Automatic annotation (TrEMBL):
It comes from the Eukaryota. Keywords: GTP-binding, Hydrolase, Membrane, Nucleotide-binding, Transmembrane, Transmembrane helix. InterPro entries: G_IRG_dom, Immunity-related_GTPase-like, IRG, P-loop_NTPase. Signal peptide: none annotated. PANTHER family: INTERFERON-INDUCIBLE GTPASE, INTERFERON-INDUCIBLE GTPASE 5. One of its GO terms (cellular component) is membrane. Belongs to the TRAFAC class dynamin-like GTPase superfamily. IRG family. This is IRG-type G domain-containing protein.
Length: 400
């Protein structure tokens, strides 16, 4: 039983205990959409030119010249907290924060009042060279508030490129030296480290598939409580950072949602499945499968990403979109794939999680099995797209 299955199962069980099966359809639909209403506020600070804007654009899946993109290469210091909202999910917000020691925020007391430090759920402190004394002061204050923070050394691509000119170049040694310098720099007045090495990340916003970009994204997610972690994970585009780890996290959440869909599938909106003695909510299942396709970044035919992948992968994409193109096609596939004997095993497995009232229906077990089969197919195509995009990125780096 996965973490997300268990947590969602607990919510279903609680609802049934308090209300019976009455209103479970509405409960499930609200829960499936709830991550889009869960506010996530990430505070980002550091020197001007450290790459904050580029990072904000990457996480929001925007190019530098897109509408709403954060301006890059701006030399002026941030004077007040500047909000950048995710273009698709307005509940996910990135705040470009001013630094301490500026004219508007000369000390910690003023900074705390004007910037509202308690507003943000986690903090990212950027530097393109050395972290400053003010960065350390800020981190100590965040620590007092029991909030998470991460130190991010940017422009690693430039540092590595500069070292490549030397005969003795060794990328591992270069990164080790940079990381060690960061760690030695991040100490309090008594010389004690204020952060563990695991909280220091070396990244390039231009090469998010390299170095610590993916690990940083995962660390941010792990620092957030459950619902905020779900919201941020679902807002990220795995293709942007070319990260299998982010893709897997999305898949885990999507697997966890199946228990919710299955619980409501046999409700008032259910329609009979041809050839089977069960009824399911075709619209709910169809919408959930379309969510899988969107979340795992399956490109549309004719899109830029579609044109970049091989013919074999293009065919798999086209076939998959056709397979899940309508409620009718979903019901037809459901009828073919539903295996009543195996569904009974799923029912037994989930009874302790959601209770016998919900799990004992045949539609519950069949819906979970069907959704699992669909997600496996979609994940396989998504991994193929991701691997080819990764290979293209490696080839481009090799030609630099």
């Amino acid at each position: 039983m996965s973490y997300w299955e268990a947590r969602n199962g607990e919510e279903i069980k609680k609802h049934v205990k308090e209300h019976g099966v009455s209103g479970i359809d509405e409960f499930v639909k609200k829960r499936l959409e709830s991550w889009k209403k869960e506010d996530v506020d990430i505070g980002i600070t550091g020197d001007s030119g450290a790459g904050k804007s580029s990072f904000i654009n990457v996480l929001r899946d925007l190019y530098e010249d897109d509408d709403g993109a954060a301006q890059v290469d701006v030399k002026e210091c941030t004077k007040e907290p500047t909000l950048y909202i995710h273009p698709k999910y307005p509940n996910v917000k990135f705040w470009d924060l001013p630094g301490i020691g500026t004219r508007n925020h000369p000390d910690l007391v003023t900074y705390r009042q004007k910037v509202q430090l308690d507003k943000y759920h986690t903090y990212l402190i950027f530097a393109s060279n050395r972290f400053t004394e003010n960065d350390i002061i800020l981190a100590q204050e965040i620590k007092k508030q029991e909030k998470s923070f991460f130190f991010i050394r940017t422009k690693i691509d430039e540092a590595v490129r500069a070292e490549k000119r030397k005969k003795s170049f060794n990328e591992y040694e270069v990164l080790l030296k940079i990381r060690r310098n960061c760690k030695e720099n991040l100490v309090d007045e008594a010389g004690n480290p204020i952060s563990g090495e695991n909280d220091i990340f070396l990244i390039s916003n231009h090469d998010p598939e390299k170095w610590d970009f993916s690990q940083l994204t995962e660390a941010i997610l792990d620092a957030l409580p459950r619902y905020k972690r779900e919201a941020l994970t679902m807002s990220l585009n795995a293709l942007t950072s070319l990260s299998k780890d982010i893709l897997k996290r999305k898949v885990q959440i999507l697997y966890g949602r199946m228990i919710l869909v299955a619980a409501a599938s046999g409700g008032v909106a259910a329609i009979p499945v041809s050839g089977l003695s069960i009824a399911v909510d075709a619209a709910l299942i169809f919408n959930e499968i379309r969510e899988y396709i969107a979340q795992l970044g399956i490109p549309l035919e004719g899109s830029k990403i579609f044109e970049m992948v091989s013919y074999v992968t293009q065919k798999a994409i086209v076939d998959m979109h056709l397979m899940f193109s309508s409620k009718a096609s979903i019901l037809s596939l459901f009828a073919k794939e539903a295996a009543t004997g195996v569904a009974a095993e799923e029912i037994v497995r989930f009874i302790p999680v959601v209770g016998s009232v919900v799990a004992s229906t045949l539609s519950f077990g069949c819906t979970i099995l069907f959704l699992r089969s669909c997600l496996k197919k979609i994940e396989k195509v998504a991994l193929a797209v991701l691997e080819e995009a990764n290979q293209r990125s490696v080839d481009n780096l090799d030609h630099e």
